[in-house]
Structure formats: C-alpha cells, structure tokens
C-alpha cells in the first residue's frame, strides 16, 4: 500500500517537473525572441535603418552643434570636450560620413559599414562601426567614435572606460 502511494507520488512529481521544464523553456524562447531582430516587423527594421542613417549623417555633418552631437552619440555627455575639440580641429575642412550598409543585430544594436570623407576626399572606405538604440533614439556608438579617435594614434581616457 505504501509502495503504491510512493509510485503515485513519484508519478505526480514527475509530471510537475515536466510541466515546470516546459514553462521555463517557453519563457526562455519568448525572452530570446524579444531580443531578436526577428521580433521586428519589416517596417520597424526599415525605420530603424533610416533613423540610423539620418542620425549618423547628422552627427558627422559639418553643421551639427555640440549639443546635437552629444545627443546622437552613446554616452555623448562623457565625450563633450573631445567632440568639441576634434570637430573644431577640422577647421574649414568638413568631415562627412555616408552609410554603405546597416544590419540590425538586435532591436537595439546595429552594425554599420560607412565611408568617411574629409574635404571631399575619401579617407575611410568601408569602415566598420556600430549604432545603438538608447531609449527611443538610434545613436552612433561610443565604440565607433573611439575607433576613429584611435586612428590618430591616441585613445582618450574616456574611451578606455566605455
């Protein structure tokens, strides 16, 4: 009698374990889908790419204010002085950047391939960079700016902490 009760208890516990495993797996899959590009509609992907392109061009454009650049750069306020001095150092030569391709890697991150020109001459071709979505705004990643700053042989302290 006790043996039969134990078997029923083991059966009930086994069923409960299987149910718990199934629930956990469903939750993991749902969480993973929310962090996947596949969770975005084609319209959302297109909109994200257009915003990345626009914000990228604005950030690197010669007419953008310091405040605009800060707002379009991940952790922009940490880079205010660097942004100001680097763009001021360009003087009359304008740097611009155009995006060759953008691929979203998640709903909040994208890989960007871009070309940079200085005074109308291509100085960077098919360079790899990235964009991140912070809140509701797609921004140039601080890693991309640090990559550019490192090209002149120095890496500011703020780049070592981001």
Brief descriptors of the model:
162 residues, alpha+beta, Nuclear Transport Factor 2, Chain: A, 2 domains, four-stranded antiparallel sheet, 51% helix, 25% strand, elongated
What is this structure, in a nutshell?
With 162 residues, this protein is α+β, with helices and mostly antiparallel strands.
List the helices and strands and how they pair.
Elements: H1 2-34, H2 42-60, H3 66-71, H4 80-89, E1 95-106, E2 109-118, E3 121-134, E4 137-140, H5 142-150, H6 157-161
Describe the overall structure.
The chain has helices at 2-34, 42-60, 66-71, 80-89, 142-150, 157-161, and strands at residues 95-106, 109-118, 121-134, 137-140. The chain has 2 domains: 1-34; 40-161, Nuclear Transport Factor 2, Chain: A, CATH 3.10.450. The protein has 162 residues and is α+β, with helices and mostly antiparallel strands.
